[in-house]
Amino acid sequence: MKWTEIEVTTTSEVVEPVSNILMDEGASGVKIDDAKDFDNLEDGKFGELSGYIKKADIDHLNSGAKITAYYPETIFIPEILPTIKQRLGQLREFGLNPGNYQVETKEVAESDWATAWKKYYHPVRVTRFLTVVPSWEKYDTTVTDEKLIVLDPGMAFGTGTHPTTKLSLMALETVVRGGESMIDVGTGSGVLSIGAKQLGVGDVRAYDLDEVAVKAAQSNLDLNPVAKDIQVAANDLLNGIEEGAQIIVANILAEIILPLVLQAWDLLPENGYFLTSGIINKKFDEVVAAQEKQGFKIRQTLKMGDWYGIIAQKPGDDD
Hints:
alpha/beta; 16 strands; protein-lysine N-methyltransferase activity
């Protein structure tokens, strides 16, 4: 089968929304080359299949990002390309900066699509306790408390090392005590659900609007034995969800978080946590104001580059 490759050169800030746009338009997979993924990479041996690797020897971007999507020959590219370009231009309306982005297309062989992205990914320690490991790497933990999140980034949504994902995982590390129930809204690759289980969360339900994301998440859950009992399904935010949880986490754009505030409030018990990320600095005050107006207490804010995460709590008797 012939495939068409659509490559978007843009800023690291918009890696996740651009990936979602490309998947929404029918991509069968995405490859992400993000300069920020290499910020914390150190020289070393990554698994039994590799020798000693020097960061300087790895061919990678020094700034910005390239998101490459793959489309089967059954999709007529001239029909979807204008829509993709239009949606990329609209990112600025959401307070995001795609920079002077470029969109290029070319035909590729299926074998190139299946393997080319593997050279970009190595295990990365993303928080104090959690390390993201590509599915083809054999990796042994280096400290007692280190937990692994195994992902197949080639068929999902990147490596799990984007700042918004890191902030969400850091927020989970802050609030999880063990045994809690959790809902993951907009699960994408499933990285937050897997990370939550590794931190000791009990029952986890994961939802995403996109059926492609649901399938990608399930594939990643299957790579992590700790995640075998996670329920993943397609759903529009929390519409129609009646069973609550002690933690609700959402790593999505600020504009989508706003209508989620009331839904989360209704499903959380007293002292339950609402963890949000994906909030660009221009939208931070608006999201905080919406949560406080609803009654949430802002317990902590996290920041990485231009991105914010918020740890909010539904107050109890002590507040």
